[in-house]
Amino acid sequence: MTQLDHRDHGPGGALNGQPAADPRETSGATMSLVASYVRERAGVEGLARVHVAARIQAPVDALMDERRWFTYEEKIALFEAAAAELRDPEVTRHVGESALMLRVGAGVRVLLRTQAWP
Fold it and tell me: Which residue of 29, 64, 66, 76 has the fewest CB atoms within a 10 Å radius of its CB?
């Protein structure tokens, strides 16, 4: 499959009604946020252990690529591996709480800063 903008795909990665070879179900921004959180708390070695435990076929560096897409199963596996590595059953909530502190999702951070906060 050629490199296409995510807007060319429908739900589950479908393109023109045909399922994609690798479904585009989870944005790389989500994976990058989780990977950044793990790396910040457990170091590069901890992130490597999470990557192996999650059995994600892409290289560990791919987790930091916000332009890349992953499957739903890869996302859940990363969440579970991160929770186990950090011994934090609420890791996804803690990742979300730290989203603006980590250098992930620059576009989202800019958008949020332009909004009026009470």
Answer: 76
Return the residue matching tokens 């009604």. 17
Q: Domain locations in the chain?
A: 6-114
Please name which of 24, 8, 31 lies closest in space to residue 105, comparing C-alpha atoms: 31
Contact 108, 66 (CB under 8 A): no
pLDDT tens, per residue, the chain with 118 residues: 333 344 444 444 444 444 456 678 998 989 999 999 999 999 999 999 999 999 999 999 999 998 999 999 999 999 999 999 999 999 999 998 887 776 656 666 565 566 655 5
Residues 30 and 56: their CA atoms lie apart, in Å, by 14
CA 98-11-35 angle, 5° bins: 25
> What is the maximum alpha-carbon separation in the chain?
46
